[in-house]
UniProtKB/TrEMBL annotation:
It comes from Deinococcus metalli. Keywords: Membrane, Transmembrane, Transmembrane helix. This is LmbE family N-acetylglucosaminyl deacetylase. InterPro entries: GlcNAc_PI_deacetylase-related, LmbE-like_dom_sf. The chain crosses the membrane at residues 12-30. GO terms for molecular function: hydrolase activity, acting on carbon-nitrogen (but not peptide) bonds, in linear amides. Gene3D superfamilies: LmbE-like (3.40.50.10320). It comes from the Bacteria.
């Protein structure tokens, strides 16, 4: 090796890293690359259609945060209502744990507990507006208001002992219009609130996050929903969706309403069914996504990437073979 080539070696690494990052950016953002390298679009086309909705059917969406109900399911919630079904939405949290979001909306570099609580109340308003866009009236929406990012604590260490959320410094439900104002941040209270909603709605179909969803609040809600519905002898009424599906899913980012929503990498072996959206349903979905101003100002390309030709729903929480374990992503 000459001294010259040794001096150039570090630069070669830089070039390789830059090229790698460029390739990654193209993969994430280009609608063409994905179609060239995988057959996921064909796989989606071959999936069976989801069971149609019926008049009089009662559908309950369990949403961990304001926006999940829209990202996963805005199209099928519209279809349910068009078929004469009654749709209700329950949000577990107000999405008050996103510090960077509060910094932007509250115009402060270091958002304090009051700023975080203000963000929570803003997101409650956005959630109700998005629901209205999807045709779900306010009296069929339930804001539970438990801590964003805290559901796993409630499910485990804080089932009976109130949890203090680090961002809001709240240890009880504080958001305006909550189902049970002042309820302590405990798993017990959360379960009691979900049970209240189940008793009131008497759902035939419950839409919950799949155990494979990467976000901790999401898979924790999946476990809670499975437990509560099993105790009622109604676990078969649960159907599952994914929002945080792993590996930058859904790619490409941005608005590509004509492309299929592919199967999420973390849950490839779930028995997915497909719900095809009409142009009008996609337009309403985009409108509902954009009702979440606090979110779209930060990650518009992630949010809009869910507006696709189809949505996906699994009637089972685990792959049929039983070999896949949720936590390890199958
Ligand atoms: Zn979420």
């Amino acid at each position: 090796m000459t001294r010259l080539s040794a001096r150039h070696r570090p630069r070669l690494w830089i070039v390789l890293v830059v090229l790698g990052l460029l390739a990654l950016a193209v993969w994430i953002n280009s609608p063409v690359v994905g179609r060239l390298f995988d057959r996921s679009g064909e796989r989606v086309a071959a999936l069976p259609a989801a069971a149609p909705f019926r008049a009089g059917q009662r559908v309950l969406m369990l949403s961990p945060h304001p926006d999940d109900e829209t990202l996963c399911c805005a199209g099928l919630l519209q279809q349910a209502q068009a078929a004469g079904a009654q749709v209700s939405i329950a949000w577990m949290t107000a999405g008050d744990g996103f510090e960077f979001d509060a910094a932007l909306t509250e115009r402060t570099l270091k958002p304090g507990p009051q700023n975080m609580r203000a963000l929570g109340n803003t997101r409650v308003g956005e959630a109700r507006r998005a629901a209205a866009v999807l045709g779900v009236p306010a009296q069929r929406t339930y804001m539970l208001g438990y801590p964003d990012g805290g559901l796993f604590r409630l499910f485990t260490t804080n089932f009976t002992q109130p949890y203090t959320a680090p961002r809001t410094r709240a240890d009880a439900v504080y958001v305006t219009g909550a189902l049970t104002p002042g309820a302590p941040f405990t798993g017990e209270a959360l379960e009691a609130d979900i049970t209240r909603v189940l008793d009131r709605v008497q759902p035939d179909l419950v839409l919950a996050p799949a155990p494979q969803d990467f976000h901790t609040d999401h898979h924790t809600l999946s476990y809670i929903a499975l437990q509560l519905m099993s105790r009622r002898g109604q676990a078969d009424r649960l159907h599952f969706w994914v929002v945080h599906g792993g590996l930058e899913w859904p790619v490409p980012k941005g608005l590509h309403a004509e492309l299929p929503l592919t199967v999420p990498p973390l849950a490839t072996r779930l028995p997915w069914t497909r719900v095809d959206l009409t142009d009008e349903q996609r337009e309403h979905k985009l409108e509902a996504v954009r009702a979440y101003r606090t979110q779209t100002q930060i990650e518009p390309r992630f949010m809009e990437a869910f507006v696709r030709a189809n949505e996906l729903l699994s009637p089972q929480p685990l792959p049929e073979s039983g070999s896949g374990v949720a936590a390890s992503g199958e």
